[in-house]
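yo, ATP-dependent RNA helicase is done. seq:
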Amino acid sequence: MFGAVRRCPATLARNLASVSTRTLRTPLAHNSSVLRIPLQAARFQNGSFAAFHNSATKWQQEAAQSIAEDGPVTEFKELATRGLVHPNLINTITNQMKLKTMTDVQTRTINEALSGVDIIAQAKTGTGKTLGFLIPVIQRIIANDPQLGERARGYKRAKPDDIRAIIISPTRELAEQIAVEAKKVTSGTSIITQCAVGGTQKRAMLMKTQREGCHLMIATPGRLFDILSDPYSGVKAPKLSALVMDEADRLMDDGFQKEIEEIKNFLPDPAEVERQNLMFSATIPKEVVGLVRATMRPGFHFAKCVDENEEPTHQRIPQRYVNLNGFENIMPTLYDFVLQAQAKAQAGETRPFKAILYFNSTAEVTLAASVFYKLSGGFKRNTPLSNLRCYEIHAKLTQQQRTRAADDFRAAKSGILFSSDVTARGMDFPEVTHVLQIGLPRERDSYIHRLGRTGRAGKEGEGWIFLTPFEKNEMRRRLNGLPLQDGTHMLETATVDMTQAGEMPENVASILSQVVEAHKKVYPDQLDAAFRGLFGSFQWYGDKHGLLEGANRLAEFGWGMPSPPPPPASLFSGGGGRRGGGGRSGGFGGGRSGGFGGGRGGGGGGFGGDRGGDRGGFGGGRSGGFGGDRGGERGGERGGFGGDRRSGGGFGGDRRGGGGGFGGDRRGGGGGFGGDRGGDRRGGGGFGGDRPRRQFDN
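structure:
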């Protein structure tokens, strides 16, 4: 897998450089390829920008001929005063977005791209590269149609077949993040931006585009191909003047090469309609070199914005591991960690605490977020976490819910984001001080990508990973060579035996008591799902019986359950006959309070057996799946963890129609988990209505 921190071999870089006739490797102070418009041409006060730019070709020629004598442009405001970029764009960037000085990546790319040449830039995420391609692309649109540079008075409808520029991103989260930035930059113009991504309704997106029109399309490859290849969509790009591929290495890594080639078939012939191509990539593997050869025009520039001597994030950021006594220690130790970090931040000893907590299954994300909501006291004030807002992002939320949570967390000064791996690559959340990984990630690259959410833009950060006894040996193999230090001694709750309540220190007993009580207040369905999700995260682990015993301790001593939920039916072939005659006699059914089925409405019924009394067996009869017939009971209870919980930006949102946060619109009664999917979820449809229940929630 091509990771964001992988460095391309020198031979590949030389290969790419040999394809290009101009390669930018000189230091900024000596870079002569900087653009400058003659001063007499930059007097916008005495004439309209439209009159100055008669055509994009003329503008680019003048820009290319105006090589700066005093060094590159490094201030955004200077782009306007020197006539390089429309002042409406720069006014928005400097006055509304409060940006003044360009980053290294922006300086190296904007100056070159404004001349109209093709560029391949090697740049990492979190370096400001989004503006590095948005500014020249938007300026190119304006240069071709100067009227678009001014804010139209009244309503002026654009056309859906008038796309001037396309930006392709590998994931919907990244595409939506770019779209938000693009709409900010163009807010003072008449340029219409649309975003087309998977996970959203194609019809709704098409109706919006047909109604509003589109000049700038930001899309994921699959959805873009779907729209352009649909003869009835009405979405076309006959005047396309710019094509951008962001995270090109990831586009190739995720297998989008075929889609990209097919997309090109629906774009105008570059020989007939001049098109600028911009490509940004953290690494330059051979697949990207091939894409460059197939896309770029002769004479393209290679802007290397990665310092060969810069230490990678996963080598630079302090990292610690915490060895836990068992699964039951996870949440008490997390709570302990957050309390300590929040106390230091409130005392002014550290920056405001802003953390991302990564879990290996969606169900674990959901449960942890619910527990921390309960620990925060809900709407109560004066609790240790009452001022710390919490957010939640994972694949089973609707796109609207995920976007709302990401935007809110991005804007927050402090808070906790509970997340699955959907935010681990390319997502930029400023000022993140800590990344906590709960359990061993499936791959080494996942660990590195998660860690990369902190320590960005020159800021400091910390990485922590919490490991159970089942993961210690595997950690040495998967994370070998990383600068991990033992931090177990810093958290007393990590090593305490939670099964021995009488032998705990007072402060640990208090933390455990709070955590257990919080688990008792969440819905049993969440506990059941997290219990099963745990086994999905440990499919690689060989000793299933030992794993089951550890999970049972978690349910009993960590969650305070009278008996553990049923594990997945596939955990053992034959139902665990190895223990058939002893200890927990009867495989999964005997032992503690009737095994997994006992004590819940029928006694000792194996995987659910006679649980029909109050729970309807292992999924049957729970009218409404996840949310079931809990209807309005949860209506406004959980509109976020702190602050204004009615905004829908946090955990609960307005569950009667807001669509924000965790539950979205649950109007349909028994709509269960899935946002505005409400309605008929009869017969144990689990998370997604009448869909079949999956074994593991990964």
